[in-house]
Amino acid sequence: MKSISFVCRIKAFPSLTFSHRLAPNRSMEVSRNHTSVAMFVLLGLSDEKRLQLILFPIFLGIYLVTLIWNLGLIILIKMDSHLHTPVYFFFSFLSFIDISYSSSVSPRILSDFLKVEKKISFIACATQYFVGCWMGLSECCLLAVMACDRYVAIGSPLQYSAIMSPGLCQNMIAGAFGSGFLGSLVVTISCFHLYYCGPNLIQHFFCDVPQIISLSFSNPFISQMMLFLVSIIFGFCSLLVIILSYGFVAVYILKISYIKGSAKAFSTCASHLAIVTLFFGTGLSVYLLPSSSHLKKEDKVLSVFYVILIPMLNPLIYSLRNKEIKEALKTMTKKATHLSLYQ
């Protein structure tokens, strides 16, 4: 740690000669005050002020739609008894994840559009990443759980209610959020425990581990290994469970002799498959690119889609293709209209 501290002091004051660096008292006292980073600077999506003012209402609209659609679906599922089934129970938590994930990033982006210097404190940066990572890992697990639910619903429809009991569903949700919390905690601690004392410019519009680790003067090997292991355990294992579940679903559907039965069975999975494709497709595109490409504008565009647009698209994909949700929405609208006429 002493050698790292010495290097950081040299990096903090590159204009000083070696004799000045070893000068006692005053110069060393000043250098000690600059050995750790207390603030990061987010470079954002663009340096052009005019473009930022154009993007502000667009991102604000996307964030409001995300909140309204996801919160509306949570309330609708809670209030309509016909939607009190495992699949909608899981989907209400997916909407909660989308709200939390979007809220961990979008308010900061919106405020940064109106700022000249996009500063974020060390603690705020760590908190933003922790919440975003927690929700992202939990969504990986939840999508795998929903794939297993669809397999049970199609493969064993007569035993579905007995297998997917309320207790099991609650344990699955607790497992998804609990494991996501632990995974995020491990990555966040390993990353932000590193020593930061020099450059503090993050080449992104939010705090993300690959860009943050590159700013450290410590050996990042352990942090990179933790990030790699968590990515494998949550990302690829969840994707493997989803592929296997839908592989069994496909085998079962092929056994159905009549076409209408096959189409009906597949339609229950179409919305979930669309969400899985968007989530894992863009996620893998962002995080499996070579490290040198993180500075490219194309990578930021993919990140916008992954972080901002997907939480808005998920409820739209699920609700617009779902007859039960449409019927529940019509029923709730009629009840609200009926009550308003008698008030």
TrEMBL record:
<dbReference type="GO" id="GO:0005886">
    <property type="term" value="C:plasma membrane"/>
</dbReference>
<keyword id="KW-0675">Receptor</keyword>
<feature type="domain" description="G-protein coupled receptors family 1 profile">
    <location>
        <begin position="69"/>
        <end position="318"/>
    </location>
</feature>
<dbReference type="GO" id="GO:0004930">
    <property type="term" value="F:G protein-coupled receptor activity"/>
</dbReference>
<keyword id="KW-0297">G-protein coupled receptor</keyword>
<protein>
    <recommendedName>
        <fullName>Olfactory receptor</fullName>
    </recommendedName>
</protein>
<feature type="transmembrane region" description="Helical">
    <location>
        <begin position="266"/>
        <end position="289"/>
    </location>
</feature>
<comment type="similarity">
    <text>Belongs to the G-protein coupled receptor 1 family.</text>
</comment>
<keyword id="KW-0552">Olfaction</keyword>
<keyword id="KW-1003">Cell membrane</keyword>
<feature type="transmembrane region" description="Helical">
    <location>
        <begin position="83"/>
        <end position="101"/>
    </location>
</feature>
<keyword id="KW-0716">Sensory transduction</keyword>
<dbReference type="GO" id="GO:0004984">
    <property type="term" value="F:olfactory receptor activity"/>
</dbReference>
<dbReference type="InterPro" id="IPR000725">
    <property type="entry name" value="Olfact_rcpt"/>
</dbReference>
<feature type="transmembrane region" description="Helical">
    <location>
        <begin position="53"/>
        <end position="77"/>
    </location>
</feature>
<keyword id="KW-0812">Transmembrane</keyword>
<comment type="function">
    <text>Putative odorant or sperm cell receptor.</text>
</comment>
<keyword id="KW-0472">Membrane</keyword>
<keyword id="KW-1133">Transmembrane helix</keyword>
<dbReference type="InterPro" id="IPR000276">
    <property type="entry name" value="GPCR_Rhodpsn"/>
</dbReference>
<feature type="transmembrane region" description="Helical">
    <location>
        <begin position="225"/>
        <end position="254"/>
    </location>
</feature>
<dbReference type="InterPro" id="IPR050516">
    <property type="entry name" value="Olfactory_GPCR"/>
</dbReference>
<feature type="transmembrane region" description="Helical">
    <location>
        <begin position="301"/>
        <end position="320"/>
    </location>
</feature>
<keyword id="KW-0807">Transducer</keyword>
<feature type="transmembrane region" description="Helical">
    <location>
        <begin position="173"/>
        <end position="196"/>
    </location>
</feature>
<dbReference type="Pfam" id="PF13853">
    <property type="entry name" value="7tm_4"/>
</dbReference>
<dbReference type="InterPro" id="IPR017452">
    <property type="entry name" value="GPCR_Rhodpsn_7TM"/>
</dbReference>
